Amino acid sequence: MVNWDNPCWRGDGSAGPHGLAGFNGNGLLLLRICAELRLILSNTFFCLSMRLKATWVYPRSRHRHHLNYVLARRPDQQDMLVTKVTPETIDLIFDARQLHEKCQEIQTDLYSTFVDLTKAFHTVNRDGLWKVMQKFGCPERFTHMVRQLHDGMTARVTDNGAVSEAFAVINGVKQGYVLAPTLFSILFSAMLMDAYRDEHPGIRIAYRTDGHLLSSRHMQTTTRVSKTTVHNLLFADNCALKTVTEEDLQRSMYRFAAGCANFGLTISTAKTVMHQPPPCTEYNAPRINVNGAQLKNVETFAYLGSMLSRNTRIDDEVAQRISKASQAYGRLQASVWNRAVFE
């Protein structure tokens, strides 16, 4: 939700004390109409102080992000379809695309499973979390303080105006709580360590940090080339498993499912497998199973807002962005663009 109750929008000074940045008549008209409709103008349209820039909280990230090119009001929250990529996701999107492109270049298969957990934050076993925190070296006093914030928690349910009796909440971390992502990450890390303690399939990569990364001749040497293995890409409660063979992906999925079962986490049934074959080779759909169910295969997948596909072209990404922008613009047709004042 975007907060519209800002001091620079009150009274007649809807443009704020920082000026209009050389706006023409249409810019003034836009400001007036937006003030009448109580619409939000981001810093793109007129100058705002850095500390007063409009921000938005994405439900799954729980971080505030600056808005660009967005108009919104409370009844039109569903219209906010075009959002800026957050700094936390840029690195992961870059990593995912680099893996796709490099595997294409070296003629290697790439198998990806994008796993989502069912109500991950709400199903965390608290007793297990306190033990994991102690194992990870958290001070006993800190663990006790965090535990006090969760012990004795109760909740009520509202149904058709009627409020239920209070009931105890014994699992999960507090949604929206500033420590919730960190607490879940600690438990999730312990789960991955337990699941892959004997074997951890992944993609082996070689790299240099001395300026000769793009030189194929220098990459053949063994003195200054470092090697590592990419096992998965992690963001919040999402996990993308990466391997170069179908057998490795199946073993990785079995271990991941076993680890989730040991820590009380549930894998959602809507999982996705994407297989990117080498160029000019026949595509054979992989058959990956977990908990007795076969995962579905897709040609494209929206990973953190960016479209990934079997090939390395960005046609699907561009088409998706154009579609979302068109939808956001169309939803404002009746409330803004069709007003006679804009004719």
From TrEMBL:
Indicate the segments forming the Reverse transcriptase domain, all copies. 1-308
Which Pfam family, just one, is annotated for this protein?
Answer: RVT_1
Family annotation (InterPro entries): RT_dom
Domain of life, source organism: Eukaryota
**Per its record, how is this protein called by name?**
Reverse transcriptase domain-containing protein
Q: Which organism is it from?
A: Schistocephalus solidus
